[in-house]
Design a protein that fits this description.
Chain lengths: 246, 442
């Protein structure tokens, strides 16, 4: 059997999710043994430019050039995997949408801002159809392997659609609300094994929200612990601002 | 010299972090254009930070770069703490140094093995090496994974660290964690020796151009990575608060990364800069490696930045082991574990302030500068990334290099130009991506 052709592409992002692949260590060679990586600019000089079976796309779409590029990639890809928060939900790049474009361009580049065309930040699926989502900032590698397997077999993958709290409870963490601080676990899609809370931090919502969040329940929790709603909404905008473009 | 024409336009330079192009135009044997275009989509981090709590800055700015996520974290924390007037404990400082060593090791290994070695071994990427140099690839991935695993133990993960925040750590390593890190780090020594053996066999291009080198400097005997003043090989020294006088940034139209200069038209930061300024403070084992690879300050061959990275790998590994051993014999104070977000309830005093963080990350000195209002909300932010500081210097290197190699083929010129840029280990996502070379008129 011919090995399926896989390519990695990056848009506006930190490339940390690609790096997560390298961080798999020698097991990455087992994965590479099953597929043919034809393009991956960060680590390869080889160029392909033709049809691929699977395109792994990291990053958000933030400028006119990126819109054209992702459309071309979509045309030559069998399946598109949106890889990492920037690609799946807009991620931290979405915070840009909290400001008028002219204002933020001017703030960073002053009078030279006209050299740098930029648009509202969008997740990949907000520009072209996406077949698979690997959420997270960064991605959780066991989930990427599961998605890649599904994509190569042409079967669907459904990420968990229950909140991070479920995994967090199983990990026996003390609830951050009980420690006196707010946390986005109650409304955020699980699948990361409550990575941040296991390490003493809160959930920032990087995997996006569950499809049917228990808003009433979350409001009750927030009220019970006397946390200002504004603060929680502001936190939600750190990763989930692009949600309003869905 | 031939009256040749060369037109090089490398669109999306590969094997670098981020997107950039090299544009070189030679007409009748004369260099007309020589630019490194940074075409990374700007992400506007400095603009996005405004209105957010200074306590959130670390989480956000870590996302500037996946490779130096820990470096951004540490520079961000330093700037935030300076703005708030928080002095970290000695234990916290030592653990932060450890974290920075892990990242320097991780990043240098990635660069030496996966990004540079293919050029020196005459292949396009590490992929063909899987068949021809399987041991080498496996060693690289093994070392990389070890760096990643020790980060997992210390801060939850390398991309993006979880437990390192303003004020200290939300989770401190337990004795079993220290033992695990110690075993992994000491276990890496044979692979590090093999890496040095490999490096001794690699041949770097001969090229020299004198320039100014900038890095942290200090008066103590420690190779400064986390703390210190700003210094240069041209004799400049100033407090980190005056970083703007050090970098003198200016915008150039072809690049979404700003350029920088100090005493000359450009300066360089990174492993070679640190080596040139502080080599006498390296640990003895690292000094031995420097001597073995023939690296002496002041070295002005930019290709040897990769050799300086190797020297630093040895230094960071040995110093990391020393820090872990220290905490194995002098137990950590677990009362210093902090709860994230307590500032929400005003438990941490905030103030209007202006703080600067200056940290030596793998590619050079990184600055974060935050201005906060009386509620600890960011009103201004400025991040100056190593690659921004190097871009101008890379262009001047190319301007000297290209005329020296015009007798070579187009392919050789392109490859050498790419190798030069790659030797700086540019991290373009940070700066705001690199090279497609086309030749006309030959």
């Amino acid at each position: 059997m011919k090995k399926p052709k896989v390519a990695f592409f990056d848009f506006a992002c930190c490339e940390g999710c690609q790096l997560q692949v390298a961080n798999m260590g020698e097991t990455v060679l087992d994965v590479l043994g099953l597929i043919e990586v034809v393009e991956w600019r960060e680590v390869m000089s080889e160029k392909w430019g033709k049809k691929v079976d699977v395109a792994v796309v990291e990053g958000s779409i933030t400028d006119p050039h990126a819109v054209k590029r992702i459309k071309k990639i979509r045309k030559r890809a069998g399946a598109v995997i949106a890889y990492g928060s920037c690609a799946t939900i807009g991620g931290v790049n979405g915070m840009k949408n909290n400001f008028p474009l002219e204002d933020i361009k001017h703030y960073v580049y002053g009078d030279s801002h006209r050299f740098f065309p930029t648009e509202q930040t969008k997740a990949v699926h907000q520009v072209v159809p996406v077949d698979y989502f690997v959420h997270g900032c960064p991605v959780y590698i066991p989930e990427f392997v599961a998605v890649l397997k599904a994509a190569l077999q042409g079967i669907p993958y459904y990420p968990p659609d229950y909140p991070v709290c479920v995994e967090c409870k199983l990990n026996e963490n003390v609830c951050m609300y009980d420690r006196g601080v707010s946390c986005l676990g109650p409304v955020t899609r699980a699948g990361c094994n409550s990575w941040c809370i296991n390490n003493g931090n809160i959930c920032y919502g990087c995997r996006g929200m569950v499809s049917n969040p228990n808003e009433k329940g979350a409001q009750d929790v927030i009220a019970k612990y006397k946390i200002p709603m504004e603060l929680v909404l502001n936190k939600m905008n750190m990763y989930n601002k692009c949600r309003e473009l869905d | 010299m031939s009256k040749r024409n060369v037109k090089i336009n490398v669109e999306y330079l590969t094997r670098v972090e981020g997107h950039g192009n090299i544009v070189i135009n030679v007409k009748n044997g004369k260099l007309e254009t020589c630019r490194l275009d940074i075409v990374e989509s700007p992400r506007f981090f400095e603009g996005m930070l405004r209105g957010r709590s200074v306590f959130e800055a670390q989480h956000i700015t870590s996302r500037i770069c996946g490779i130096c996520a820990c470096g951004h974290t540490l520079a961000s924390i330093q700037a935030a703490e300076a703005a708030l007037g928080i002095t970290p404990s000695e234990q916290t400082i030592q653990l932060r140094k450890l974290l920075l060593h892990y990242e320097t090791l991780d990043s240098h290994i990635l660069h030496i093995y996966l990004l540079v070695a293919p050029d020196l071994l005459g292949v396009k990427s590490f992929v063909p090496l899987i068949n021809t140099h399987n041991d080498l690839v496996r060693r690289a991935l093994r070392m990389k994974k070890t760096c990643n695993d020790v980060c997992d133990v210390l801060v939850g993960r390398h991309v993006h660290p979880i437990s390192a925040i303003v004020g200290g750590f939300t989770k401190l390593p337990r004795p079993k964690d220290l033992e695990a890190m110690h075993a992994m780090l000491t276990g890496m020594r044979p692979d590090m020796e093999a890496t040095v053996e490999l490096a001794l066999k690699l041949k770097f291009p001969d090229f020299e151009r004198d320039t100014e080198y900038v890095s942290l400097v200090s008066d103590d005997n420690e190779y400064p990575m986390l703390m210190g003043d700003l210094g240069s090989t041209d004799g400049v020294r100033m407090d980190k608060k005056d970083y703007r006088k050090m970098t003198n940034e200016f915008v150039v139209p072809h690049s979404s990364a700003k350029h920088a200069k100090l005493s000359r038209d450009s300066y360089a930061v990174g492993a070679l800069a640190r080596f040139n300024l502080n080599s006498e403070k390296l640990l003895p084992k690292a000094k031995e490696v420097a001597a073995a690879v023939g690296l002496k300050p002041k070295c002005i061959n930019p290709f040897l930045n990769t050799a300086a990275q190797l020297v630093e790998c040895v230094h960071c590994l040995e110093d990391a082991i020393a820090i872990v051993e220290h905490f194995m014999s002098t137990p950590l104070n677990y009362d210093e574990e902090i709860v994230v977000g307590l500032n929400e309830q005003g438990k941490i005093p905030v103030r209007a302030g202006n703080g600067v963080g200056a940290v030596e990350v793998p590619r050079g000195i990184l600055f974060h500068n935050y201005v906060t209002d009386q509620n600890g909300i960011l009103t201004g932010a400025n991040c100056i990334i190593p690659t921004n500081q190097n871009t101008g210097n890379i262009e001047y290197d190319l301007m000297k290099l290209i005329p020296e190699i015009l007798d070579r083929t187009d392919e050789e010129i392109t490859l050498t130009a790419e190798m030069l840029v790659r030797s700086y280990d540019p991290c373009i996502s940070c700066s705001a991506h690199l090279i497609d070379i086309r030749f006309n008129g030959r």
